[in-house]
């Protein structure tokens, strides 16, 4: 059976960053620890996109509430959570209001596997916006061996032409640009606190 | 990369010069010219999700505005109201609000106090029609509480009469205009008369009606709102769901109600048709893609414009996150697989069989509801009224064993 691409949250956030504004993706919730994973996704989005990320529950939001929540403000990242599952009626209703969901900031649909099938089957207008951007929440590639970590640190140092210590100093002095590679570098150095 | 944003508002893409205008043989010119030349004409634009309907309507709007003398309104009705509870009258309400604003801001018009007062009254009526009103009723003077069937029977016995419905023999071909729809006619006509002193023709574009996958609601606004607009000589361009075009016995009724129905077919990525390449080129796709990869993206998009733009964007993104210097065949293959997997998810065995039969025998019945669903979800694409094909990205991921079995 064909499967969606597995991506860690950091990569999903990075893809949204590359896209700039108005990116739409769907992420399949993992079978276990869904709530903790959602928190993790929210944190990664905030860290990489350098903007607030909110979670909005789809099931309990009416048309008016959802429209208002998405547009006030409309530039931050929004995770639309399907919770344990949405009714077909809710999917159809969301689909016909797709124009009202359009906003400047990125939209991330956080869905159970069953809801992804419903999205494709009953919400063709939203699916059209998502396109092929449906990802399985995967393990964080940050969990690498010490040798891999050292190799990557060396790569980053060679690529940018300065050492890890210098990267930390620049981050402390707020001279380090908010590029995904620098975020990765600081995390690998154990200095995610400087982000 | 920014040029390849499949979710960017069509108006933004148009303003940024990213739209290849001749994609559908300048359909927008035909739409606009007819609306301009035949006041009260009604044209429908039908097409699948992501086929570029909004762009064509915006181009038509732009063309009409350039003509200078007309008054054109553009509404994405799905942004204005919850379509799942769409009421007849909603289109007239939106049009009325726009017209009211234009007329009351026509600085060149000098109005006598009495006329200003009258317009103020009409304006209030339109706002109440759109947003509702609070009505105070004197409960001591009327007895309108709900009555039980026993009370109703007693009333009739006491007053010695019985109320019965006697149906007529001549049934009207269309349902009568609702009373509230008739009531808003006077204020709309008054405002239209004033607007027409400054503008020759009035055209209103209603986008978003294609979201109504259930055609029943669509017909309710056709029978009420669009009928009144036709009587008031307001030209209408509107979108409609594919379901009004396909399905048992619907073809005749749609051509009865509209002067012209334009079907926005999918564009084939045949070697002799370079339209899809032109869409990519307009967005400077040649700077990102080799000719071979661009051709692959055109092919696997199936000609669905939004899929075309998504695939180009996703391939570039894939190359970037994979540290490739340029987009490779593997990047394209990966994003095609992702798109195809999306279409595959949730597909049952019967639907899979239908798709594979279509692929092998080219036969597809559009009057079967399950097949209409395949069209609405874009798993099957319509290139003409007789040419249906499985979406190529989907076809590429249907398991080989299934394909052999058919």
Question: Which fold name corresponds to the CATH topology of one domain in chain B?
Answer: Rossmann fold
- SSE topology string of chain B: HHEHEHHHHHEHEHEHHHHHHEEHH
Structural class designation of chain B: alpha/beta
What is the oligomer described by this structure? Answer: heterodimer
For the report, how would you describe the main beta sheet of chain A? 6 strands, parallel
The coarse silhouette of chain A is: elongated
Work out the largest interface and the residue count of each chain: A-B, 41 and 47 residues
Q: Can you tell me the number of structural domains of chain A?
A: 2
CATH class of one domain in chain B: Alpha Beta
Could you report the average pLDDT of chain A, rounded to the nearest whole number? Answer: 86
- Uncertain runs of chain A are none
| Rg calculated over all Cα atoms of chain B | 26 Å
Number of helices of chain B: 18
Gross morphology of chain B is globular
Write the layout of secondary structure elements.
The complex is a heterodimer of chains A (195) and B (406).
Chain A: E1 5-7, H1 9-19, E2 24-28, H2 34-49, E3 53-57, H3 63-71, E4 77-81, H4 88-96, H5 98-101, E5 107-111, H6 113-122, H7 124-130, E6 134-137, H8 146-160, H9 164-172, H10 180-188
Parallel strand pairs in A: 1-6, 2-5, 2-6, 3-4, 4-5
Helix pairs in contact in A: 1-2
Chain B: H1 10-15, H2 27-37, E1 42-47, H3 53-67, E2 71-76, H4 77-80, H5 90-104, H6 113-131, H7 149-159, H8 179-198, E3 202-207, H9 215-231, E4 235-240, H10 251-257, E5 260-264, H11 275-282, H12 291-301, H13 305-321, H14 329-344, H15 349-361, H16 369-376, E6 380-384, E7 387-390, H17 392-395, H18 400-405
């Amino acid at each position: 059976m064909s499967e969606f691409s597995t991506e860690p949250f950091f990569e999903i956030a990075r893809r949204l960053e590359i896209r700039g504004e108005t990116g739409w993706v769907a992420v399949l919730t993992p079978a276990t620890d869904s709530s903790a994973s959602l928190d993790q996704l929210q944190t990664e989005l905030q860290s990489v996109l350098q903007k607030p990320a909110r979670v909005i529950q789809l099931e309990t939001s009416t048309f008016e509430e959802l429209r208002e929540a998405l547009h006030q403000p409309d530039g931050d990242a929004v995770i639309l959570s399907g919770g344990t599952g949405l009714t077909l009626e809710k999917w159809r209703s969301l689909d016909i209001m797709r124009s009202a969901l359009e906003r400047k900031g990125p939209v991330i649909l956080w869905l159970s596997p069953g809801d992804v099938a419903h999205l494709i089957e009953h919400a063709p207008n939203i699916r059209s916006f998502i396109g092929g951007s449906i990802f399985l929440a995967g393990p964080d590639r940050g969990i690498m061996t010490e040798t891999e970590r050292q190799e990557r640190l060396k790569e980053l140092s060679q690529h940018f032409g300065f050492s890890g210590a210098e990267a930390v100093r620049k981050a402390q002095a707020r001279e380090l640009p908010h590029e995904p590679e620098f975020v990765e570098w600081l995390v690998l150095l154990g200095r995610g606190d400087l982000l | 990369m920014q040029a390849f944003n499949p979710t960017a508002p069509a108006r933004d893409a148009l303003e940024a010069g990213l739209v290849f205008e001749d994609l559908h043989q300048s359909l927008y010119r035909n739409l606009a010219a007819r609306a301009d030349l035949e006041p009260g004409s009604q044209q429908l634009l039908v097409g699948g999700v992501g086929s570029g309907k909004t762009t064509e309507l915006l181009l038509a709007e732009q063309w009409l505005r350039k003509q200078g003398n007309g008054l054109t309104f553009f509404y994405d009705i799905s942004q204005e109201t919850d379509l799942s509870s769409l009421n007849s009258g909603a289109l007239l309400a939106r049009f009325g609000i726009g017209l009211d604003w234009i007329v009351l801001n026509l600085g060149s018009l000098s109005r006598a106090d009495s006329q200003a007062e009258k317009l103020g009254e009409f304006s209030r009526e339109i706002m109440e029609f759109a947003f509702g009103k609070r009505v105070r009723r004197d409960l001591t003077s009327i007895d309108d509480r709900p009555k039980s069937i026993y009370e109703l029977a007693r009333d009739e016995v006491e007053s010695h009469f019985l109320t019965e419905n006697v149906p007529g023999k001549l049934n009207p071909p269309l349902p009568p205009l609702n009373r509230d729809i008739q009531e808003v006619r006077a204020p709309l006509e008054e405002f239209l008369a004033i607007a027409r002193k400054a503008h020759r023709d009035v055209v209103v574009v209603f986008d978003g009606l294609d979201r109504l996958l259930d055609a029943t609601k669509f017909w309710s606004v056709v029978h009420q709102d669009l009928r009144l607009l036709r009587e008031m000589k307001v030209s209408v361009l509107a979108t409609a769901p594919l379901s009004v075009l396909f399905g048992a016995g619907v073809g005749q009724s749609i051509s009865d109600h509209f002067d012209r129905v334009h079907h926005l077919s999918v564009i084939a990525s045949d070697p002799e048709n370079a339209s899809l390449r032109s869409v990519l080129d307009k967005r400077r796709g040649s700077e990102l893609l080799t000719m071979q990869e661009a051709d692959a993206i055109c092919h696997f998009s199936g000609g669905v414009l939004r899929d075309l733009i998504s695939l180009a964007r996703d391939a570039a993104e894939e190359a970037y996150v994979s540290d490739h210097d340029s987009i490779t065949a593997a990047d394209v293959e990966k994003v095609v697989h992702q798109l195809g997997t999306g279409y595959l998810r949730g597909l049952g065995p019967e639907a899979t069989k239908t798709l594979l039969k279509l692929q092998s025998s080219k036969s597809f019945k559009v009057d079967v509801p399950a097949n209409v669903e395949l069209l609405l979800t874009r798993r099957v694409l319509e290139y003409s009224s007789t040419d249906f094909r499985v979406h190529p990205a989907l076809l590429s991921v249907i398991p080989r064993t299934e394909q052999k079995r058919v």
